[in-house]
Amino acid sequence: MEAGTLAVPGAELYYELRGSGPVLLLVNGGEGDAGAFAPLAGLLAEHYTVITYDPRGNSRSRLTGPLGEQRIPEHARDAHLLLRALCREPAYLFGTSYGGMVAMDMLASYPELVRAAVAHEPLLVELLPDAERWHAAFQEVYETGEREGTTAAIRQLSGLLGVDAPPEPSPALPQPVADLLTRVHANMTFCVRYELRSFVRYAPDLEALRAGMFTLACGDTDGTVGHRTALALAALLDIEIAGFPGGHAGFITHPAEFAKTLYEVLDS
After folding, report:
1. pTM of this prediction?
2. Per DSSP, what are the bridge partners of residue 133?
3. pLDDT digits (tens, 9 = 90+) for 253-268
4. Is 101:199 a contact under the CB 8 Å cutoff?
C-alpha cells in the first residue's frame, strides 16, 4: 500500500493507494475515513487500483482554511482533484452515505473523470415528503451535541437513522481497530457540527444521473432513512436498486460479500 497527502484548496487530503488495474475511488461519508474501507479495499485491489482517502476535516485530512459549514460540491471537487493527481484515466466511483452524494455530484460536475458511479444509501433527505421534519430532527442532534457532547448526539443520530452507533474505543481491541474508532469518534464531532445539517440538504442533478453510468445501491435493512431515500431516488429515475449485503455499514460488516457484489455491479 502507498500512502500520501495532496494539498487542495482549504485542506490537505490523506490518501491510500492499493492494487492494479482500472481505477476505483471509494468515498466514505460522515465519520468515516480510509481505514474504515481497508478490508474492502484490500479485497478489491485484486481487480482494481483502489484509492481511499480521509474526507476533508476527518482524521488525517486536516483543514488548512477557515473552519465552517461543509458542502457536497466542495467534497466532490476534492475527489476530482485527487483523481486528477493520481491517475490519467476515468475512474469507477463507489460512495456510501454522504459519500454516495459526493459520487453523484462527481458524475454531474466532472463526467469526464467518471467511468461509472455507485451510490450506496445516500442520505437524500430532500427527496422525502417529510423532509422538513427530518431537517428539524437533525437540528436537534446538533443542539444536543452542543449542549451535552458528541456521545449524546451520536446516540440520538443513530436512533434517527436506524443504524448502530460506532462502538467506543477500547484497549482490549486490536490496536488498528482501536485507532480507527478513536478517529471515528473525533470525526463525529466535526460531522455533527459542520456536515450533518448542510449535507442532508443536497439535491442531486437527476438529468446527470440519467445521462451517466449510475447505479443506486441499498443494504438489506428496510425502513431506515438511507433505504427510504434510495427508494425515492429510484422512483424519480425509474431504475432498479442493486441489493448489497449488510445494512448501512455492510462494507465493514460483510467485506467479502460486499466486494464480490460491487465487482459484479461494476463488471456489468
Report:
1. 0.95
2. none
3. 899 999 999 999 999 8
4. yes
Question: What are the contacts of 227-235 at 24+ separation with CB within 8 A?
Answer: 227/121, 228/128, 229/121, 229/122, 229/123, 229/124, 229/125, 229/127, 229/128, 230/121, 230/122, 232/124, 232/127, 232/128, 233/122, 233/124, 233/127, 233/204
The span from the CA of 103 to the CA of 117, in Å, is 6
**Calpha distance 80→157 (Å, rounded):** 30
- The angle subtended at Cα 50 by Cα 44 and Cα 56, nearest 5°, is 125
DSSP letter at 240 equals P
What DSSP line would sit under 182-194, residue for residue? HHHHHHHHHHHHH
| Model pLDDT for residues 60-117, shown as the tens digit of each residue | 999 999 899 999 999 999 999 999 999 989 999 999 999 999 999 999 999 999 999 9
Letter string b/e over residues 93-114, b meaning 16 or more CB atoms within 10 A of that residue's CB: bbbbbbbbbbbbbbbbbbeebb
Written as one string, the DSSP assignment of 57-84 is TSTT--B-S------HHHHHHHHHHHHH
The 3-state DSSP class for residue 111 equals: helix
